[in-house]
Amino acid sequence: MIDFNIAPFVGTETDYIREAVANKMICGDGPFTKRCHAWMRERFDVQKVLLTTSGTSALEMAALLCDLEPGDEVILPSFTFSSTANAFVLAGARLVFTDVRPDTMNIDEGKIEAAITDRTRAICVVHYAGVACEMDAIVEIAQRHGLKVVEDAAQGVMSAYKGRALGTIGDFGCFSFHETKNYSMGEGGAFLTNDMSCAERAEILREKGTDRSKFLRGQVDKYTWQDYGSSYLPSDINAAYLWAQLEKADGINENRLVSWNAYDAALRPLAERGLVELPTIPVNCVHNAHMYWLKAADLDERTRLIAHLKARGVQATFHYIPLHSAPAGLKFGRFDGEDEFTTRESNRLLRLPMYYNLAKDDLLRVVDAIYEFYGVSR
User: What's the rounded Cα separation, in Å, for the pair 295 and 186?
Assistant: First the structure.
């Protein structure tokens, strides 16, 4: 069986975990957490980085920092994971879903402005498959209307838009280091911002509402409860696992890009014959090979293709069910405008096995099985 995903492992993770235990500080914000913070600040040219327990908790921090009140609205794509929406629902907002672009499956920047009302407070973009949304247009809209921009860059670590790292362009950025991501700490994430006026409050949110971070830096002689918050900081053991991969971040990225490019080259003839559609990478985007997807003709064909691949030992899967059609989506939000692409394109999309050190022979087996399904010789 060719697995759909295998969590990344570079070999030094266990050594660093042992070191973390030997440090006798396995709670949050230990030595490995500090290394990860410093690496990301320098690599992504961002002022503040805070490791979190998940990408979800990073999104929750971002939503809380938007200072939403009951009745406030947040614009976001319907084609995303529930965590994106949950963060704003928990912060008290109503959700306004908008359509996606079929080429990237990202929020359609041309549909955002029509969805803005006098209750809109923020726009949350999702960089699907590590490919950037059109951030210049989105930031310009947000600035004209006085809105916050939150980047759900869960899939976008090491991706960029016009030379800027995803997660650093809006007001707040959110990474995920779940085991399905390019870099993993099992469960984990990171909150990023260049708005230093929010940095201290972000620390307080992350530390159960206390100023413990300032205490650990020796800035106060004791720490106290300052505001609402939660326990969003991960164990230093998790950070030790992540640190091993950040040290090898370029190698992991290059390895994945080799697989992505091999898929793209091998499947391009099927796209040229009109049998499938393949991903588009806009000219201003540098992606991280988080995912390789293709689109079948329709839902029925996709279902049959998934079954065909499974019968040949290949795990492939569809992706998000649009949130606006889910029970919670109907309860907490609405879809603005016409659902021209979100449902139709999500019904067609199929994700192929993609992970660090995917064997070339296994990748070619996947490709051969797809050609077999379409009755075409490679």
Answer: 30
**Do 155 and 293 belong together in one domain?**
no
Same-domain check for residues 255 and 240:
no
The Cα 10–Cα 356 span in angstroms is: 9
Q: Judge contact between 20 and 240, C-beta under 8 A.
A: yes
Residue 38, both tokens: 């410093």
**39 is written with which tokens?**
């690496």
CB-CB neighbours of 331 under 10 Å: 9
Nearest to 55 by CA among 228, 194, 183: 183
Q: Which domain, by its residues, includes 315? A: 249-374
140 and 277 both lie in a single domain = no
- CATH no. for residue 191? 3.40.640.10
| pLDDT reading at 311 higher than 90 | yes
Find the mean pLDDT for residues 286-295.
98
- Asked if residues 278 and 267 have their Cβ atoms less than 8 Å apart, the reply is yes
Say if residue 34 is in the same domain as residue 175: yes
Which pLDDT belongs to residue 313? 98
Instruction: Give the integer Cα–Cα distance in Å for 134 and 194.
Output: 19
Task: Compute the 3-state secondary structure of the chain and give helix, strand, coil in percent, each to the nearest 5.
Answer: 40, 15, 40
